[in-house]
Amino acid sequence: MLVKRLFFQHIEKCYLSVVYDSGGKQKLTQTVTAIKCNNQTFSVNNNTSIWFAQGKGLFFMKLKNTLLASALLTTATLSAHAATELTPEQAAALKPYDRVVVTGRFNAIGDAVQAVSRKADKDGAASFYVVDTSDYGNGGNWRVTADLYKEDAPKADAPKNRIINGVMELPKDQAVELMPYDTVTVQGFYRSQPEVNDAITKAAKAKGAYAFFIVRQVDANQGGNQRITAYIYKKDAEKRVLQSPDAIPADSEAGRAALAKGGEAAKNVEIPGVATTAAVGSGTGVGRFFETQSSKGGRYTVTLPNGTKVEEVNKVTAAQMVPFDNIQFTGNYGNMTEISYQTAKRAAKKGAKYYHITRQWQERGGNITISADLYK
């Protein structure tokens, strides 16, 4: 007997009557009428049995030989309550009402998230956010920590910026929107980040700065000295004109098609020469390049020995474009810079101007296999 297991969203009132003849052979005498499942209507034939919804559970109507079975199916509604997993940005904007820990053996992060989702459902949460995952007891078990949120979760309190030596420290999301007027650089041996902040703010204050943002902090030598550069801002700093780093490249096939279409589609195409929100101070011309390490703040670009430039697009941008080809290769690569170079080299051979790495996984012997989509 073929069994179809269906999840019913709604069942209208109907009758089912099935009779078996003396030989035990099922014979249909009256069919179910108007059963709605995912906006489709189903009926019963003599090779089909159906799971019916009743209350919060399910029961299977099994018809035995020489038995006339009649069932009255009344209106029932099932809803699948599932807590929603929040993005980091969404979670940061809301206040959780509880923090829970789930432990267990999970094969992948997806399994761990499902376990947290079930816990959130049980606790009546509307959404959740996984804060941390770690090994538990060195036995292969995971310890997953998550915050839970109500449907009407209150907004998170806006963080207050720190004031150090009379100069405000800006977070990146605020600094990127403002036009810096200068930079300050300090170099020395600092035992902690508070010492770094103390030195950089004293230099900023000496230049009359209202606020600062550290754009670069690197080791100056093998002796433990550091070189730190910060953008500094006036209190009435000018707002910058910015665009999303996820915009479609203007000179790509997808970009030209979107511009030709116009309207909302054209708004998703980058504006050449306009900086993105990905890099603080990019494109402002403030500061020396070797200190700020800022160019136009665009995509990661690989320049090949013959001068060809190939750019990497992120997953949001890639989702708005149509690849014309893809590549897959395997090799022993020590870092992401080498992986990007090898990908760009192969992309250029196929005539691509852009690429997006879709997957990379470890092989035996330390080799890595990379697959990427290619775009004109």
Automatic annotation (TrEMBL):
Span of domain YdgH/BhsA/McbA-like: 94-150, 179-234, 321-376
Pfam families linked: YdgH_BhsA-like (PF07338)
Keywords, ordered alphabetically: Signal
Gene3D superfamilies: Flavin-binding protein dodecin
InterPro entries in alphabetical order: BhsA/McbA_stress_biofilm_assoc, Dodecin-like, YdgH, YdgH-like_sf, YdgH/BhsA/McbA-like_dom
SUPFAM superfamilies membership: YdgH-like
PANTHER family in the record: OUTER MEMBRANE PROTEIN-RELATED-RELATED, PROTEIN YDGH
Protein name listed in UniProt: Protein ydgH
Biological source species: Klebsiella pneumoniae
